[in-house]
Structure formats: structure tokens, C-alpha cells
Amino acid sequence: TQSTWGHLNRLHRSPSTLCRFVFVVSVFPFVQAGRCLSRRFCSFVMESACTNTPRRSEAQLAPQGPVDPTRPRAHGRSQPLPSDYEFPILYKSDDYVVIDKPFDLRLDGAFETTIEKIIQRQFPEIPKFRWIHQLDYATSGVQVVGLTRKGAAAACRLFEGRTTVKQYLALVDGWIPFSTDTGAPVHIIHEPIYEPTDNSFRMEIGSLEHPGKDSLTHVSVLCNGHLLSNGRPVSKVLLRPFTGRRHQLRLHLKHLGHPIVGDATYSTDYTSYRMMLHAYRLHLPFTDNSLTFETADPFSKEMQIIESNMNVQDTLLIPTVTSSSSHTS
Fold this sequence. Notes:
329 residues, alpha+beta, 11-stranded mixed beta sheet, two-stranded antiparallel ribbon, 6 helices, 23% strand, globular, disordered C terminus
């Protein structure tokens, strides 16, 4: 009430130490209540963000075009995953389970099928799963899930410290030369990425007005050829991001002039059955035991190879420590 606040104001202005003490004691519950409400609001915002549907936003951006009825749609599977679907397991220990994530699958949220729901059904004996990193909804490949607090914290430190080595495979529009104009075997894209504040789903290359955050990607061209489905010219590339910006690989490849096949956000391809981006290999350099996880190439039957880059000296490749489901414990 007005009289209560007037009393508190007089206590605050009083030179007496006792009065100031009484003021602090009186105001403290209000401050704590405010902090509690603030924490709850932030938690609500984060939960809302986690249950966003990025691919739905991409679908909203894409005009409706002709779709081959014999293949799945670009914006989600034509048929959902089977109700008894189980992830291919690349590795399992007391601290981690490493899965080969399918494309077009969300991490969690109020959806019929998510990574969280599948993995809980697949491993009912594990009480809690801890998310260490995240792949885009449309991206497939290696995903590490923590099983213990200690293990998850150790892996998170590697990602935060940028000591992990991540490698992706992608099919991109057009043919990229095997080497740069200077003869270098790796195309280096060092362009900042800016996240617009207007709730846009698309990220942008930074500018003088909007500098963005430093972002670095290395691109090695593995082969050039044509898609078997429609004869479209494509390149298969191996990508190594040295930073972890949102949509970094997708935006950098668009900036290079070769957007990823099926990327309905950064290209005009609205008919491909999926976005051709796959988390192919992940290296975790733990001090006591480094681990490397690798999947098969999901695009091996998507293209007819015209020429392979036999001269590439790919220093991005790392000896595989753990690469198949037989390495479980």
C-alpha cells in the first residue's frame, strides 16, 4: 500500500544503521520474489525456444512447388518413422551414447516423434539423458548424448572450448573446382554471421552495419557429378566448421555460390526429399582417452560421379578410434 512504501522510503533515507537494517530486511522478500519470477520467466522462454519448429519456419518460407509423389516431401517425411524405430548406435559407455540421427527429426518438444522420446524408449533403464550438442532438425548424423552429469560436463567443455573436430558431408548445387585460384586444395570461407533481431529464421553474412560473429569453414571437394534423381550437377564436399554459428555451413555454402541441395531456407530447392547435410565424423579430444565417431556416407547412392578429386590431401581426416556399433560397452 501507499503507506507501506512511504514507511520503507523513510527507513531508506534515515541515517540510522538500525533503520537501514530494518529497511533491508523489509525489502529483501520483495527482491527475492522478483528474482524468482525472473528465473521462472527465463525458464519459460528457454523451454519455448527448445520446442520451436525450425523446419516449419522453413516450410513457411518456401513456396509450394511440384513434388515427386514417389519420394518424401522436402519439409518433413512423407511417412513418419516407425513407432518401434531405434537409433543406430555408434558408441555406448557409462557416460555417453552416440547415435546416428535421421534427418528431419527434432530434439525434444511436444511432438509425436523426437530424439528424446525414441532414446527413452530404446534405453528405459537410463533415468536421464543430457544434451551436449544439437544438430539442425534437417541435418542427420553423429549426435552425442550424455548419460551422466560428469560425462556431459566434460564433453560440453570440449565444445565450448572449440577443441572438438566436426566434419560434415554435403551435396551442393553446381560443380566446385577441386582447388582454389591459388591452387590450395581447401576452400576457406571466413565470413562473419549476423543473426537478425526481427525473429527471422534466416541468418545473414555480416556487414559494416551488422558485423556479426566471426565464422570460419573449410571446404574440401571430394567429387563432382550429377544427381541420379534428375541429372542436376552437384559436388560432394567435406566440411569442417571451426566455429559453431547457427546455420554456419548452410549460409557459408550459399555465400560460396553453391547452396546445399534440399536447403529450402538458403536456396530455391523445394522439391528434394531432404537437405543433403550430414554430420559425418566427430572427434572428442579428452585428455585421458580421445574418441572419434564416424558414420557411413548417406549420399553414396545419390549421385553419379563424373570426376573424383584424387589429388586432395585431406588433412581434416582423423584416424577413427570408434566407428561402428560393435564398439559398445
